[in-house]
Amino acid sequence: MLGLALPVAAQQVTVASPAAERLRVTTTSEEASRHFFAGVSDGRNIFFSRAVMHFDRATDIDKNLGLARVFRAALVPGLTQAERNAAIDSAIATMTSATTGERVVALAIREFPNNARSHPLWETAAKLLPGDPNVAFYAALTTPVPGNVAAMRAVTERFPDDAPAYNILAYNLWQIGDHAGAFTAVRKYVELAPDQPNAHDSYAELLQWSGRLGEAQTHYARAVQLDSSFAEGYMGLAEVSQLSGRGLDARRQIQLAIAHSPSKATTVGYTRDLARSFLMDGMVKEGMDQFANALRDAQTLNRPGLIAQIHRDMAFFDAQLGRGTAIASHLTAAAAGGADDPMQIELTAASHAVGGDITVARQATQKLAALAQPDNEFATHASVINAIIALRENKPKDALTQLAGAPLDDAWVRALTAECYAAAGNLTDARALKNQVLNDPQLNFDDGYNISARIRAAKIKA
Question: What is the pLDDT of residue 12?
Fold first, then answer.
């Protein structure tokens, strides 16, 4: 594999960490080494823009510190995967004096988007460097489900002062339903890393998901107080504000995130979030204008995949908001990014189902169903779209049949089931499901599927 043929012998002074079994970086400069490890720490603490600053400083001091270039390429916001791979390959090619440990870590990072390929390399690195918490962390992070929880817990037991491991453990525990364990882990994260913005951001997010919005707001605010460039903290504040019925304040916070965005591509994402906040508050023109702004910026960046995503956003919301004038044009433009893309098929079906072109919707839904496995997301979404079609045809009983077996924790399944109940006169159950959708504290502006379900639910007369 790429990089394995690099010579092993280091021709520079190797600056080692305190234990010989930990990761070392080959450099002539102690200062470059310090910046490298500070960058690794910030990267593991999900503060990528600040990590990049440390890696840049490290390579300014020592231009031959190849592993810093590898980490930088992996973490710098805004690159496509192809751009990342090219930058990592270029960096690996310069690592002629690197140690075996450095080279294996570099190869593991290069494969990182694919855990099946990355994990064995991290496991190899962990055997070479058994005393290194950074390597142990990434080996655990790439461990396949369901072994990932035990793997990350083992890291916290071997390295009890390693703060970032508690962050990932907290989210892993939350996902399997151990909310008490998740809070124990995230509080330990804050205790060990009180000056890391992400520690407070993670604690805030779990508080938000628990419905404790006031406490969540306090910790999101602490995150941006620690470092005003931590843009995700503003997005957390925006979520709390939107959930609290303060849409105007939510949009102010999103604008602050945009002002502190680490890349133009990230700005496009935040602009889409701004659009969704407007639409949640019924401000259709303002929301669609922000989607248009995001589209323009994505076109400037020449990102075909991102351009297609935004066109699909605009097609669906054009249908959902009752305009229906630009569904076809946006879907046609999006198809340039791949007509057989599953998301293109899904949004074609959904947009036409909501917009009322039942024939086209059915054809696309049949294609979507062909992609579905019994328990996967496509199966749920095909059921949802078929239920939308049935409701369009004023057949609420058929809609309920389509939703039978679909997971009721899915926001669209809840919203459509509520519509069916309302149509049958069961307003009590309809109202209960409607409120579950609207009051779900796990709001994420990036999740257009969930946002659109909230907009649909808000219109139910129950």
Answer: 39
How far apart (Å, rounded) are the C-alpha atoms in residues 448 and 280?
A: 11
Q: Which helix (H) or strand (E) holds 300?
A: helix 284-301
Residues ≥6 apart with Cβ < 8 Å to 93: 3
Report, as ranges of residue numbers, the positions in the chain whose pLDDT lies below 70.
Answer: 1-20, 374-375
Contacting residues for 212 by C-beta, under 8 A, at least 6 apart: none
- Give a yes or no: residue 253 inside a domain: no
Domain end, chosen from 65, 100, 120, is at 120
Residue type, position 378, single letter: F
Q: What is the pTM of this model?
A: 0.93
Containing structural domain, residue 438: 372-462
Cis peptide bond N-terminal to 160, omega within 30? no
Tokens of 233: 């903290």
* The two structure tokens encoding residue 128: 């070479």
In Å, what is the CA distance from 313 to each residue of 276, 336, 409, 446, 452? Answer: 10, 15, 23, 11, 10
Task: Locate 355 and state its tokens.
Answer: 């917009």
- β-pair type (25-26, 14-15): antiparallel
Q: What is the tally of structural domains in the chain? A: 2
CATH number at residue 73: 1.25.40
Query: Would you give the DSSP letter of residue 25?
Result: E
Q: Is residue 295 part of a domain?
A: no
- Token pair for 162: 């390693």
Q: Which residue, of 68, 88, 120, is where some domain finishes?
A: 120
Residue 419 lies in a domain: yes
- Count of Cβ atoms closer than 10 Å to residue 1 Cβ: 10
Which contacts of 441-445 are long-range, i.e. CB under 8 A and separated by 24 or more positions?
441/208, 441/209, 441/210, 441/211, 441/213, 441/243, 442/208, 442/209, 443/208, 443/239, 443/242, 443/243, 444/239, 445/235, 445/238, 445/239, 445/242, 445/254, 445/272, 445/273, 445/276, 445/277
Determine the 3-state secondary structure of 15 from DSSP: strand
Q: 284 in a domain, yes or no?
A: no
